Write a sequence for this structure.
């Protein structure tokens, strides 16, 4: 979506002196109580506009509807200013990609509001929280904005698919018609996901939204421009953190976040998606029924992502991997099985030899019990690759979860992603690091 900043600036008005004082006092209070957020907000030019119902930021400026500001208490004004700072420091104006804009805002709001409330600040009663997004697959602490947004988008698509299939069944449409409808719905879903629907400035939680950063001409930023903006913002965040730290008022979660900016960790889901080369395209596989519908006596094709295919996950269960590291590895393995819409998943547990192998035609049926611990000896990377060769497995993607403390095997002819709990790098394939 381009041109939103221009729309906001087209609605610029001069606020009353009362509103100006109200906003200025809140900024000063924020500087005193939370010098980190105060320093960030003071560097954001404030634009008063009637083009949106609440507040917004594009990572550069702060856009405020005067009527909205006037309706907030002093404490709430401090809270929503902090909320908008959260959108900026978490790079939400640079990270959305083609995700649905409304869902992206909701996901960011839920995570930011949790932090703002934990910091003792007050938000409008309408401010979203974890209950606002319903039941989730993971513990709340496991969610980034991307992971939460993608899960909410997936849930929305599944609900729409079930509604469409119910309607198709009631209308007794034939299979060819179902396929055509599926493709039409898929195209519409992709369009909706990229563009969002309705008012682009709609604010479900009433705490302010984030919009994508734009170039001076109102166009989306290029990859180079985004990279430059990220570097500049990271520097600004570190400088503002130093100001707060010097006053002894840098919140612990901000201190950790600033540390992560200087030694960034990988967003597993995004990195995995890039490795697998997945898009959002789906197809209907008429050779494999959707088990959810089959239990109801209805044959419907299974919806599968194009290009994911057979994923093999090898898990290093050696004694050199600590209990803490193993727990992290297992959490990531379960994440893969739940989140990657693979046609088949094979999980291989190995130390110096293969201890156990699980195969799943439907990854959604995997439970915690299926991801048990096996082995515990030394480390040898060869057996899982040999298993693939001997069993003639047609591998699309091979993922090895390990500390990389062993001799490297020969490079296979399929893509390999090494997920390491150490700073070691594999000799081939791609290596990413988790903590």
């Amino acid at each position: 979506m381009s041109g939103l900043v221009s729309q906001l600036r087209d609605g610029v008005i001069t606020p009353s002196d009362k509103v100006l004082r109200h906003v200025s006092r809140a900024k000063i209070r924020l500087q005193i109580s939370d010098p980190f957020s105060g320093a960030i907000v003071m560097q954001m030019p404030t634009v008063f506009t009637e083009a949106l119902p609440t507040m917004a930021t594009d990572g550069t400026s702060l856009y405020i509807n005067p009527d909205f500001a006037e309706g907030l208490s002093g404490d709430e004004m401090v809270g929503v200013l902090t909320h908008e700072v959260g959108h900026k420091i978490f790079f939400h104006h640079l990270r959305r990609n083609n995700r649905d804009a409304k869902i992206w805002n909701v996901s960011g709001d839920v995570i930011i509001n949790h932090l703002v409330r934990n910091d003792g600040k007050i938000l409008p009663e309408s401010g979203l929280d974890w209950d606002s997004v319903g039941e989730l697959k993971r513990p709340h602490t496991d969610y980034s904005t991307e992971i939460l947004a993608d899960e909410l988008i997936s849930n929305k698509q599944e609900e729409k698919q079930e509604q469409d299939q119910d309607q198709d069944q009631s209308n007794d449409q034939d299979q060819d018609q179902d396929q055509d409808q599926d493709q039409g719905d898929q195209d519409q879903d992709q369009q909706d996901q990229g563009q969002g629907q309705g008012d682009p400035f709609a604010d479900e939680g009433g705490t302010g939204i984030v919009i994508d950063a734009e170039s001076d001409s109102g166009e989306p930023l290029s990859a180079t421009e985004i990279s430059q903006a990220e570097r500049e913002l990271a520097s600004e965040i570190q400088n503002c953190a130093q100001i707060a730290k010097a006053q002894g008022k840098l919140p612990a979660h901000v201190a950790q976040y600033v540390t992560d900016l200087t030694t960034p960790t990988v967003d597993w889901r995004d990195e995995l998606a890039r490795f697998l080369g997945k898009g959002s395209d789906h197809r209907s596989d008429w050779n494999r029924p959707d088990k959810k519908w089959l239990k109801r006596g209805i044959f419907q094709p299974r919806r599968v992502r194009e290009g994911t295919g057979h994923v093999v996950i090898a898990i290093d269960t050696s004694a050199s991997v600590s209990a803490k590291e193993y727990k992290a590895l297992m959490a990531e393995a379960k994440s893969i099985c739940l989140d990657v819409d693979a046609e088949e998943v094979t999980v291989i547990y190995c130390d110096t030899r293969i201890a156990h192998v699980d195969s799943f035609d439907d990854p959604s049926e995997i439970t915690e019990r299926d991801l048990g611990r096996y082995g515990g000896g030394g480390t040898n990377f060869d057996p899982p690759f040999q298993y693939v060769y001997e069993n003639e497995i047609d591998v699309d993607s091979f993922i090895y979860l390990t500390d990389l403390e062993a001799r490297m095997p020969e490079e296979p002819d399929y893509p390999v992603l090494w997920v390491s709990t150490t700073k070691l790098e594999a000799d081939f394939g791609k290596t990413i690091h988790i903590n």
